[in-house]
Amino acid sequence: MSKAKLRSSLLAVLRCNTAHSTAINFPNVSNSALSSQLPSNCISLSQLPSTAECFRLWRSSRCECLNNLRFPSRVFSSRSAEASDLKLRCWNCGAAAPTSVVFLVCDSCRSIQPLDQSVDYFQIFGLEKKYEIGDVNLESQYKDWQKKLHPDLVHSKSDREREYAAEQSARVIDAYRTLSKPLSRAIYILKLEGLDVNEEDTISEPELLNEIMEIREAVEDASGSQELNQIQSQMQEKLNHWSNTFAKALRNRNFDDAISSIQRMTYYERVKEEITKKL
Fold first, then answer.
1. Which CATH number fits domain 206-278: 3.40.50.300, 1.10.1740.10, 3.40.50.2300, 1.20.1280.20?
2. Phi, psi (5° rounding) for residue 60?
3. Is the CB of residue 104 less than 8 Å from the CB of residue 145?
4. How far apart are the first and last CA of the chain?
5. How does pLDDT run across 178-209, given as a tens digit for each residue?
6. What residue spans in the chain does CATH classification 1.20.1280.20 cover?
7. What would the pLDDT profile of 15-71 be if each residue is shown by its tens digit?
């Protein structure tokens, strides 16, 4: 701001701070003449500070205002960071959580942590969130988790930690059972995509329904384990085919075909279960 503009601004403020609410018009007259027109209780122009003094006062008041400013956003950010930090620390010893693995157990004090529903089943086993998981040894990782989380291991601990252990152990069990089978893994990964698949939905395709009826009749009429095992192998081949179809549909984000594949996998999986009961 220039000194001339600053002096004009200050003059405008002084003109407005009179005891009267009416506006004052200032014609093009000299300073002495203008001063004579001002109300008696208004400061005269001769009493105004110099331009240099105005600038000094403005700069001083500006600095004071800046020093007294408060920034709520910074306070909120600090509180948010503090809350986030608390979530990433052990409830028992306060140790920071590792960033490379899910925080189910504290490495420092071995305390089992509260259940975090935001952690999905793939994260529990350190897997990428995708349908095809390859030859991952889920059973080995599952046993490693149970060695740390099983409720029997914390029977002498507090009620709080025993409750955490029961919840974490049950979740790991469910994660293992879900990811270890293609059908349940397919349903779960669609759930993560926001799609709930109803396995009980029937398929209206006559060709598929006739095929399922024939398969079930073959299972009922089977004379021995050899025939049943042969049908079992055929069902596994069909499951593999539709599992690959599902994987392709998921990669292409074609969720209609993905759901259709799951429904077929459900039929063949049930036939396998019926055969297993008879063997």
1. 1.20.1280.20
2. -65, -45
3. yes
4. 93
5. 999 999 999 999 999 999 988 777 677 888 88
6. 206-278
7. 444 444 444 344 444 444 444 554 555 444 455 555 555 445 545 544 444 344 333
